[in-house]
Design brief:
The complex is a heterodimer of chains A (501) and B (334). With 501 residues, chain A is an alpha/beta fold. Chain A is built from 18 helices and 24 strands. By secondary structure, chain B is mainly alpha-helical. Chain B has 15 helices and no strands. At the A-B interface, helix 10, helix 11 and strand 20 of A face helix 1, helix 10 and helix 11 of B.
Chain lengths: 501, 334
């Protein structure tokens, strides 16, 4: 057998008393797309940091094409042919595409930039990716997220990499862009580049990856040569270390009276005259492509984005005011799709984050009673099973899933009975997702109404009672979830159903 | 778990102690020098506290502004404006309590204008308050006719305004002038407000993440307006103290005071990017600056040396702070 492109054996790394990696092994062949799978906190990011030179290992071996690899900084990794493409795009938005592609390795002549060569090399790299459509002179800010990602991949390509690592590359892409990205990944593979592909979307890994390795608690617990031949059940089982019977099983709940009527709500650009009705005990899913206006609909209802037309009503009566504090007063609550940028105060502690929207009941003579705040926080920590050292822990130190639980707990602490949840399961691990589905079901059973935006169709179909599909700012179809299929939703979302008919 | 609670208790203790460490280091330096017998006397400390009052009051307002993620560059000019307005009022025969009110309200008014522009027109605080820095200074000079407003010729040395910060006993620590007591009282009130009131929590939330604050139903623009107006009240009060100390209204005084105030807040551990800081820290920051100044004077170092030392201390304080935080961050990433 030929030498592996990259071979990690028994890599260990600890930070203080926590073992981040406890014997991780990984073998990637030349021209292989290898899936690295694991829940949040399984050690994926630490492993990637070690591979990209951002931190060092305590023990274990890493061989690149049979040679021992020791990295002390990220620059060395690039020189050795290891390129990293991070989850958050790392581009300078005001520089041109070409400048970004060659950032840090600009061709120079007598110390001055060689613009011609820069253009040429950037174009060449983009062409290799099949992205000729992107003009190297455009400012990156003006590109779509998907295009920006291609620029980032082009940047990885110009250093002639042997291994490209992609961390959750599709988390902000539409289905079509994802397909295009997969084509690019296959091109890289055909060139003999090895790709390590990290993603929470197992179906995606099946579609694009060859081999796989599953990490759990810092250890490699399983690997195989063919991801597509392995059942997802088997992989999920390896990830969580136990049987996951039915991930979408939610507690039974029954739909009751109408609690919120959204009547022809329009925003600046999106949404356009969206009308829908939420009932007690209902989980209403909103599907659609990225940019279809789902998030904007939620934000307009909640008053975070301006509402240019229509009304939000309860029992036929228009809600007073239109700003977030007035909506909160009327029992609406919104969970932001951007947990880190908008949803939470990462540098404050858990208790503050949990109670921020409703501190008044925790006061006496206007002063916050810290004991009451703690008690309230502890109540919700218990109730939702948030893994934290306590109400005093800094928010940023919690894992994604637990952060999300705190963000949801804030809505519950506020006593909202209409919950607008925007991508509540984005970027969190399978076990946490399952807990959030169950929670949504429980809340519905308690008589709350949930409006659930998601880009992931299986979860919408699995959890919702009713699903509406949005396209270009309009709500084009609403049906009971049982009457939808993934295929039908995609047709409605892309407008293909009408062009056929 | 037990270890963790212990760690957290230690953290709480550290939060209280840490700001004092800088002060002890500075005091320690002077303690081993040849001026210690002058520096460590009741009378010197009486003077020290009197001299800290203006910066300390300014720092109370500024700390709140900086925690909320803003900045107020107009503080020094507003102090000058308030002192000139106060002096003018005295000349016009306005009764003493109203003089106090006028000074404070002038500050509050400029702060409200700052807040209205920042919140209403969404202009960044740096620009708005930079503008107000010029405007307030100009108005002060205009009202004062480009000269100091002197009321001692008319009222002699005995106007009650003088008694606010007047030192009566030059040999002992007590009695402290009422202005010092008022400042201490306000500091305690502000510590409580920032730590324990809903308003304080909202200020921290605003500085940590404005979007989150809005999402949680905090009326962000109103809060900003209130924050700058309240800060203005403190600057106005600081102007009154300045008036009492100088015994005249000087439109050209307090140039650069805003930077001294910001320095005190930063030395006290606040971050200019918002979301962190403490009133107690800022008060100690103000003391550190005054101790450095007085200590340098006692040592016979000239003004330029003092300026260099204070500059170095600011940078040093921020470095230490950064060091601490990066240490924390590293641990949290792991």
């Amino acid at each position: 057998m030929e030498t592996a492109r990259l071979e990690l054996s028994e890599v260990r790394k600890h930070f203080g008393s926590t073992k981040a990696l406890d014997g991780a092994s990984l073998m990637v062949q030349p021209g292989e797309v290898h899936a690295l799978i694991g829940e949040n906190g399984a050690g994926k990011s630490t492993l990637m940091k070690i591979l990209s030179g951002a931190c060092s290992r305590d023990a274990g071996e890493i061989k690149l094409d049979g040679e021992d690899l020791r990295l002390t900084n990220p620059l060395q990794a690039r020189d050795q042919g290891i390129s990293m493409i991070y989850q958050e795009l790392n581009l300078a938005p005001d520089l041109s595409v070409a400048e970004n592609v060659l950032l840090g390795m600009e061709p120079k002549r007598f110390g001055w930039l060689n613009r011609k060569e820069m253009q040429d090399r950037a174009s060449a790299a983009l062409e290799e990716l099949g992205a000729q459509a992107i003009d190297p002179q455009t400012t990156v800010r003006r590109l779509t997220i998907a295009q920006q990602q291609l620029v980032e991949i082009a940047r990885a390509l110009v250093s002639d990499p042997r291994v490209v690592i992609m961390d959750e590359p599709t988390s902000s892409l539409t289905q079509a862009d994802t397909e295009r990205l997969f084509a690019v990944i296959r091109r890289l593979r055909d060139r003999g580049v090895s790709v390590i592909y990290i993603s929470h979307f197992l179906e995606e890994c099946q579609a694009v990856c060859d081999g796989y390795t599953v990490l759990r608690d810092g250890k490699s617990v399983g690997s195989g040569e063919s991801m597509s031949q392995t059942s997802l059940d088997e992989i999920v089982h390896l990830m969580v270390g136990r049987e996951v019977s039915d991930i979408y099983a939610v507690p039974p709940h029954a739909m009751g009276d109408s609690v919120l009527q959204v009547v022809e709500v329009s925003g600046l650009d999106k949404p356009r005259k969206v009308s829908l009705e939420l009932h007690t005990g209902e989980i209403f899913g909103l599907a659609g492509l990225v940019g279809a206006g789902r998030t904007e609909t939620l934000r307009s209802i909640f008053g975070l984005d301006p509402m240019t037309g229509g009304s939000v009503e309860r029992a036929g009566k228009r809600l007073p005011g239109s700003r977030p504090h007035e909506r909160l007063r009327e029992g609406l609550g919104l969970l932001s799709e951007n947990r880190k940028e908008e949803g939470l105060l990462l540098n404050r502690h858990v208790a503050d984050n949990l109670t921020l929207s409703d501190l008044k009941p925790l006061t006496r003579y206007g002063w916050i009673r810290e004991s009451a705040q703690r008690a309230a926080a502890e109540h919700w920590i218990d109730e939702l099973g948030v893994k934290t050292s306590g109400p005093d822990q800094e928010m940023g130190k919690l894992s994604g899933g637990n952060q999300q639980k705190v963000a949801i707990a804030r809505l519950l602490h506020h006593g909202s009975d209409v919950l607008l949840l925007d991508e509540p399961t984005r970027g969190i691990d399978v076990a946490s997702k399952q807990q959030i589905y169950r929670l949504m079901g429980r809340l519905a059973a308690e008589g709350k109404a949930v409006l659930f935006v998601s880009s992931y169709l299986p979860e919408l179909l699995g959890v919702c009672d009713t699903i509406g599909v949005m396209r270009r700012g309009e709500l084009v179809a609403v049906k009971p979830a049982a009457d939808w299929t993934e295929h039908a939703i995609m047709l409605a979302a892309t407008g293909a159903d009408e062009s056929v008919a | 778990m037990n270890k963790l609670t212990q760690m957290m208790q230690w953290k709480a203790v550290r939060q209280v102690i840490e700001p004092f460490i800088g002060l002890f280091v500075v005091l320690g330096f002077f303690a081993v020098s040849d001026v210690s017998h002058i520096l460590f006397t009741g009378s010197t400390w009486n003077l020290l506290l009197v001299q800290t009052v203006v910066v300390a009051l300014g720092a109370m307002g500024m700390t709140m502004v900086i925690i909320s993620g803003g900045i107020d560059l107009s503080a020094g000019s507003v102090v000058a404006l308030s002192s000139v307005v106060g002096a003018k009022c005295i000349l016009l025969g306005v009764p003493f309590p109203l003089v106090i009110l006028c000074c404070v309200l002038v500050g509050g008014l400029t702060g409200a204008i700052n807040g209205a522009l920042i919140a209403g027109l969404r202009i960044v605080p740096f620009i708005v308050t930079l503008g107000m820095m010029g405007i307030a200074r100009g108005v002060a000079k205009w009202i004062a006719n480009n000269q100091t407003v002197n009321y001692t010729a008319k009222y002699g040395n005995e106007h009650p305004v003088r008694s606010i910060l007047e030192r009566t006993d030059f040999r002992h620590f007590f009695p402290l002038p009422p202005g010092v007591w008022l400042t201490a009282f306000l500091a305690i009130v502000m510590i409580l407000v920032m730590r324990r009131s809903v308003f304080g929590r909202h200020v921290f939330a605003l500085g940590s993440n404005e979007d989150t604050a809005r999402l949680c139903g905090i009326r962000v623009q109103w809060k900003k307006m209130a924050i700058y107006a309240i800060a203005g009240l403190f600057f106005g009060l600081a102007g009154l103290m300045q008036l009492s100390r100088l015994n005249l209204g000087d439109p050209t005084a307090s140039v650069g005071l805003e930077l001294e105030i910001i320095a005190a807040v930063v030395i006290g551990g606040a971050s200019l990017s918002g979301g962190s800081g403490s009133i107690l820290g800022s008060m100690i920051g103000a003391l550190i600056i005054v101790v450095l100044k007085l200590g340098s004077t006692l040592k016979g170092w000239e003004n330029h040396i003092q300026e260099i030392i204070i500059g170095v201390v600011i940078i040093f304080a921020v470095c230490v702070d950064r060091f601490r935080h990066s240490g924390l961050l590293k641990r949290s990433r792991d």
